């Protein structure tokens, strides 16, 4: 979640997509894919303050169209330069993703990359565990855990009650199911629900289950690289929103629900935002909610901020202590101003608060 409200994205979607339509009612029974991987991590050379390492990945499970390897450094090591992968680091947590030419990993296929880094001149231990596309690399294959039934359209009993906040996790077709994501996103929006009650004396209603898991129609790279809503910042989240609208017959805005969508896809520079009764967030927010990308207060504050946009608030003009400014990064030490409270209570979605 970047500190950026959703304006151009929703305007473009509203102008180019149909606002009404009947959604088919169906469910898809998820199958258990074979998932597994093996990682070899080797320090190639080491010198005062620096080192180089090489990492080899072998896919033991079903073919992958793209890959994302994660590990955590235990002694303060940092990555300074990488090749054959895009590497990002948040504190000790490291994520290495494929580049354009080495994303395909067939069963038994391998990929490798390297990097230069810094260490403390005292200890440079090899990471103890790795995950590939959020599946633990144990050197063997295991069935990917999946729910018995994953809804892709409203359940047969009908859509959730109106005037509620409706939450979705869109899982691209090539991303393994991971229970941490619906569980984590649930906790984040429940914390936002608690915070709204604390600040406003009223709050919004969530549905049961809180998160609707949606099997995406496309692989992750399609959401990341198919243009939608202008600049690339919006592509992943606008492609998600378009699919959710088509599958669930949603409007933008929609008078029945405030809609919150998170997708396990990101792409270069991707983010998200909120506005017009929507919150749409990309992969790093979903990862953060699942507890695999930074401290949780960051993602709690981000959700409060974007729901503020969904309820009609603009960004604050300065870091002013309100959650609609960069003060969100200090959550829970940010608040809504009295003007912001009044604007939400009297705004287009004020009737959703009780």
Care to describe what's here?
The chain has 354 residues and is an alpha+beta fold. Helix content is 23%, strand content 27%. It is built from seven helices and 17 strands. The chain has helices spanning 8-16, 180-200, 220-225, 235-248, 283-289, 296-310, 338-345; strands spanning 27-28, 34-47, 50-59, 68-72, 78-83, 86-90, 93-97, 110-118, 131-132, 135-136, 141-143, 150-151, 164-171, 206-215, 257-263, 273-275, 278-281. The chain has a five-stranded antiparallel beta sheet, with no helix packed on it. It has a five-stranded antiparallel beta sheet with strand order 6-7-4-9-10, with no helix packed on it. Helix 2 (180-200) packs across helix 5 and helix 2 packs across helix 6. The longest helix is centred in the middle third of the chain and has 21 residues, at 180-200. The protein is globular and about 65 Å long. The two termini are 27 Å apart. The relative contact order is 0.16.
């Amino acid at each position: 979640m970047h500190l950026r409200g959703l304006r151009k994205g929703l305007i473009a979607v509203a102008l180019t997509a149909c606002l009404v339509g009947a959604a088919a009612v169906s469910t898809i029974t998820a199958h258990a894919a074979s998932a597994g991987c093996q990682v070899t991590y080797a320090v190639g050379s080491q010198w005062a303050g620096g080192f180089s390492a090489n990492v080899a990945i072998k896919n033991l499970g079903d073919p992958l169209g793209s890959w994302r390897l994660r590990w955590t450094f235990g002694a303060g090591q940092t990555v300074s330069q990488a090749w054959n992968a895009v590497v990002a680091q948040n504190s000790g947590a490291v994520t290495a993703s494929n580049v354009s030419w080495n994303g395909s990993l067939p069963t038994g296929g391998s990929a490798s990359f390297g990097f230069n880094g810094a260490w403390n001149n005292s200890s440079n231990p090899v990471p103890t565990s790795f995950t590939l596309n959020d599946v633990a690399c144990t050197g063997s294959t295991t069935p990917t855990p999946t729910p018995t039934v994953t809804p892709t359209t409203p359940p047969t009993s009908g859509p959730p009650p109106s005037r509620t906040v409706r939450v979705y996790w869109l899982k691209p077709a090539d991303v393994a199911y991971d229970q941490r994501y619906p569980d984590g996103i649930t906790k984040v929006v429940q914390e936002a629900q608690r915070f709204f009650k604390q600040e406003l004396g009223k709050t919004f209603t969530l549905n049961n289950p809180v998160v609707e898991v949606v099997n995406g129609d496309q692989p992750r790279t399609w959401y990341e690289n198919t243009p939608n809503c202008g600049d690339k910042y919006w592509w992943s989240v606008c492609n998600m929103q378009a699919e959710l609208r088509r599958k669930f017959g949603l409007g933008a805005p929609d008078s029945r629900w405030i809609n919150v969508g998170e997708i396990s896809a990101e792409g270069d520079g991707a983010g998200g935002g909120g506005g017009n009764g929507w919150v749409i967030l990309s992969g790093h927010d979903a990862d953060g909610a699942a507890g695999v990308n930074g401290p949780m207060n960051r993602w709690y504050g981000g959700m409060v901020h974007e729901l503020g946009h969904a309820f009609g608030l603009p960004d604050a003009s300065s870091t002013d202590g309100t959650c609609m400014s960069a003060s969100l990064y200090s959550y829970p030490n940010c608040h809504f101003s009295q003007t912001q409270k009044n604007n939400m209570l009297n705004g287009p979605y004020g009737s959703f608060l009780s």
